[in-house]
Amino acid sequence: MKHLYPFFLVTGLLICPDLKAQSAHVLKSDLKIRAVHKIENTDLQVRLRYSPTNDSFYTIDLSGGLHHLVKNADGTFQNSRVSGVEDHGINYLQGLAIRDGWIYLAGNVVIQQGVSGYGKAVKAQIRPGLPFLWVEIFRTEAHASSKTLFDHSFSAICFSADGKDIYISSGSRTDHGEVKNNEGLYPNLREVALTSAIYKLPAGTEKLFLPNDSASLAPYIFVRGVRNAFGLAVAANGDLFSVENSGERDDPEEMNWIRPGAHYGFPWEIGGNDNPMQFAGYDPEADKLLNHQYTGYKTKAFYDDPAYPKKPAGLVYRTPVVNLGPDADKFRDPVTGIVKDASDTGTGITTFSGHRSPVGLSFDTKNALKGMYTGKGFMLSYQKGYDGYGPLEETGQDLLMLDLKKNLAGDNYELHAFQIAEGFQEPTDSEINGNKIYILEERGQIWEITFPQEIITGTDPESRAFKVYPNLASDKLFLEGPGLNEISAIYIHDITGRQVLSYLPQQVTGYAEMDVSGLQAGIYIIQTITARHHFTKKILISR
């Protein structure tokens, strides 16, 4: 999240102004959205988690506040600040997890602003009506701040599928492996042993000390080569995924399938692209991916660097997940500098359009979201598209549905990304609870998106009464059935899952007619959506 980092350098509480709910809206007719609560008088809100223990939510803010949200009978919420830095000691708080009645926090303790600090994680049992008694999980040795917006620090924390282990992300202290000497305080310093990694600790770990030494850290390092894995989440099959932003060049933002012992490329590879600073004779003025409006260019962080560390011999990277579109797949051509849409050119990118700042990764692990959303992944984009920082020629600040599948070789995933909601204001996290996804914005606004629940499939009697004809269509397609009396939308998707046609009826009937004359010949899937049902059937278009 590119605009959160500078607050590592700011002292005191940052009070947010009173902002009314913005224009967030859904892009699919079977979804509903509403603003449910605004956390007032808070520092920047970072994480949102549901607690089954007391059927409520918790959020954290950047300066260490833990907030408790209780749902009222009318569906609104009330909140209170229930703990803070004065209790747990973490004054730069970015990680929150809840498991088996315990709350887990992760972040950094800033010793001296812009000079040094150390990583720390704590836990406490949820005891309704009683204060939290925080137990230290680990703390690290103090290490150097870069005194820039690239001090990513400890952030995401999540559990393995079986609950036996904790994964914790530690971001880089540089943008792309360049020297960050803190105005000469730390000569020639780039990354340190504690940064740019994901740690794996037994869930019962307490009072562990992690030194700033690679050999001593080895038993606890799960993977290296991640720049800023701000989002960590486990899918229904137990696979761990991360999302991270990729820095000041127009490289794609990454989603990675995280596997033990792997290296994910940083700093030599970012967003699937080679970092050009590792090569002799690099000329930033000729770099088509280097945006001159960005801080990295203005501060001369890109330069010909003969001392840049060489990639270790034999090091093999794990590459990011490939996005096959149709959304969030813009990239800048490194030869021409022109922004292109990957799926429009028949290719994919690794993984998302540059400068989206992916956050809020979550998975429907309980298959609670029905229809096309069942079992899918979801991700927020923090950045708004505009001339400064922001997604390449996209709106940003949206919610994406991620349809992930392993590639033919089985050694990585591919995904199709679909934009399903937009108009948020700097969203930072999401949480699935039942058939709803809750979205947290940085300034405290919380949104609730309701997904379909009951779905009638092709094996149910009502579905069998649903008719589509002719099945070999050319110009017109007709639909009939009792379920269509409640119809809200009809969509046609090609075999890649890309929506190619939609129909929103103006009146409620048991009959619908669609013009398909603009579709190419081939196989398509027609999806009919009502308030309670989803019907899907395969159709053929001839020419």
UniProtKB/TrEMBL annotation:
<feature type="domain" description="Secretion system C-terminal sorting">
    <location>
        <begin position="468"/>
        <end position="541"/>
    </location>
</feature>
<protein>
    <recommendedName>
        <fullName>T9SS type A sorting domain-containing protein</fullName>
    </recommendedName>
</protein>
<dbReference type="InterPro" id="IPR011042">
    <property type="entry name" value="6-blade_b-propeller_TolB-like"/>
</dbReference>
<dbReference type="Pfam" id="PF18962">
    <property type="entry name" value="Por_Secre_tail"/>
</dbReference>
<feature type="domain" description="Glucose/Sorbosone dehydrogenase">
    <location>
        <begin position="137"/>
        <end position="269"/>
    </location>
</feature>
<dbReference type="InterPro" id="IPR026444">
    <property type="entry name" value="Secre_tail"/>
</dbReference>
<dbReference type="InterPro" id="IPR011041">
    <property type="entry name" value="Quinoprot_gluc/sorb_DH_b-prop"/>
</dbReference>
<dbReference type="InterPro" id="IPR012938">
    <property type="entry name" value="Glc/Sorbosone_DH"/>
</dbReference>
<dbReference type="Pfam" id="PF07995">
    <property type="entry name" value="GSDH"/>
</dbReference>
